[in-house]
């Protein structure tokens, strides 16, 4: 039985790795699901929406009962009963409910904007992490070459075919590359920590060295929908403010009962708002005009931003293409190593040539990184 259980245990352990790799899209969706700030804002949105749905019914009816003792006693006592109900125009015709509905739609769109903003931040962080992973992989290749070079010169010194100065130069080049790799590792850990925080404290495993095709939600469309909804709110507020200038109707039933006499009937009252809402309409109209101006301004800014980001993206793409082409036509590291081994290059010349090649490789990676970041930003607003 023990022999049968051991393979099963090993299989289960192997099927459940402690740190399974995730795709960029999986990480983004996980962040949108686990982000604690987004959850808290969603709860606040729900609370505000519930608050908006209060006070949408007519005022409660009022009931008044009066009892009077008669004096002298023989005239008897008096009983009065008054029941009244107020009717305001905005509630009676559903204007308050429509305003609450529009306000709740604004809250929904604001939450959607927060979600899209978080998504954009996550995607840009993953672009940055992919770039660091690419540099780290490239650095590992350089270190492997440098280590083989150090070993070669250490052996050559022992055999008397090289000087200690040459060995020390090779060791210095290796030390520099190792330091650069450590710096990259620090930046990677910072980004992973940031993604973990965005993911509600859950660790993220991402070592991809190829830029994923990340298609973020469009903040431009969501922003326009939000501004349109805000305009509907201000329009509805203007109508409600105007309705507040209409008389408020009060209907009621009255009963007066005395010894030998009964009086019953209906009452009708009007509350005429002469002064209480004098500035209300002007205030809401001013907000309405301000909202329209803001909408026009944001539309213009989006047009300019979209064009600027597109131009920026194209510039980075062209630079990245040129550098890749130049890199493809340049001398490779293997050819330099062969020339060194054949004695066609001195160690100093080899290190200088390798440094130039490394610099070109770094510039090509940076240009591709800049293009991917610009593309990610453009996709958010196009």
Brief summary:
With 382 residues, this protein is an alpha+beta fold. The protein is 69% helix and 10% strand.
What does it look like?
The radius of gyration is 38 Å and the shape is rod-shaped. It has ten helices and four strands. A hairpin with a 2-residue loop joins strand 3 (248-258) and strand 4. The chain has helices at 2-15, 24-34, 36-52, 89-92, 95-159, 164-198, 219-243, 280-329, 333-341, 347-381; strands at residues 62-68, 78-87, 248-258, 261-271. It is an alpha+beta fold and 382 residues long. The two termini are 63 Å apart. A four-stranded antiparallel beta sheet has the order 1-2-3-4. Mean pLDDT is 86; it is low at 1-18.
Q: Tally the helices: what do you get?
A: 10
Radius of gyration: 38 Å
Strands of the widest sheet, in order across it, are: 1-2-3-4
What would the principal axes of the Cα set say about the shape?
Answer: rod-shaped
Unreliable residue stretches: 1-18
Strand proportion: 5-15%
Number of strands: 4
Largest sheet: 4 strands, antiparallel
In N-to-C order, the SSE pattern is HHHEEHHHHEEHHH
Structural class: alpha+beta
């Amino acid at each position: 039985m023990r022999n049968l259980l051991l393979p099963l245990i090993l299989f289960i352990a192997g099927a459940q790795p402690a740190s399974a790799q995730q795709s960029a899209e999986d990480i983004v969706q996980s962040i949108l699901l686990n982000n604690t700030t987004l959850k808290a804002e969603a709860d606040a949105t729900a609370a505000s929406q519930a608050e908006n749905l209060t006070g949408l019914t007519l005022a409660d009816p009022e009931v008044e009962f009066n009892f009077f003792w008669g004096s002298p006693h023989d005239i008897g006592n008096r009983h009065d009963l008054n029941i009244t109900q107020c009717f305001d125009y905005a509630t009676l015709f559903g204007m308050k409910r429509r305003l609450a509905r529009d306000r709740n739609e604004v809250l929904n769109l604001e939450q959607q904007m927060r979600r899209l903003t978080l998504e954009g931040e996550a995607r840009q962080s993953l672009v940055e992490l992919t770039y660091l992973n690419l540099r780290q992989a490239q650095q590992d290749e350089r270190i492997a070459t440098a280590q083989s070079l150090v070993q070669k010169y250490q052996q050559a010194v022992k055999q008397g075919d090289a000087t200690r100065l040459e060995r020390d130069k090779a060791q210095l080049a290796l030390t520099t590359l190792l330091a650069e790799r450590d710096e990259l590792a620090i930046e990677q850990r910072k980004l992973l920590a940031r993604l973990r925080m965005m993911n509600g404290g859950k660790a993220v495993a991402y070592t991809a060295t190829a830029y994923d095709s990340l298609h973020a939600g469009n903040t431009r469309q969501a922003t326009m929908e939000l501004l349109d909804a805000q305009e509907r709110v201000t329009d509805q507020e203007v109508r409600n403010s105007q309705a507040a200038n209409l008389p408020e109707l009060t209907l009621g039933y009255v009963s007066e009962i005395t010894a030998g006499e009964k009086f019953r009937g209906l009452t009708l009252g009007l509350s005429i708002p002469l002064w209480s809402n004098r500035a209300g309409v002007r205030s809401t109209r001013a907000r309405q005009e301000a909202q329209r101006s803001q909408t026009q301004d944001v539309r213009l800014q989006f047009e300019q931003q979209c064009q600027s980001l597109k131009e920026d993206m194209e510039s980075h793409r062209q630079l990245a293409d040129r550098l890749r082409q130049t890199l493809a036509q340049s001398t490779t590291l293997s050819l330099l190593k062969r020339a060194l081994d054949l004695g066609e290059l001195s160690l100093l010349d080899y290190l200088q040539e390798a440094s130039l090649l490394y610099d070109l490789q770094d510039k090509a990676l940076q240009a591709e990184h800049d293009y991917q970041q610009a593309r990610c930003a453009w996709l958010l607003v196009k």
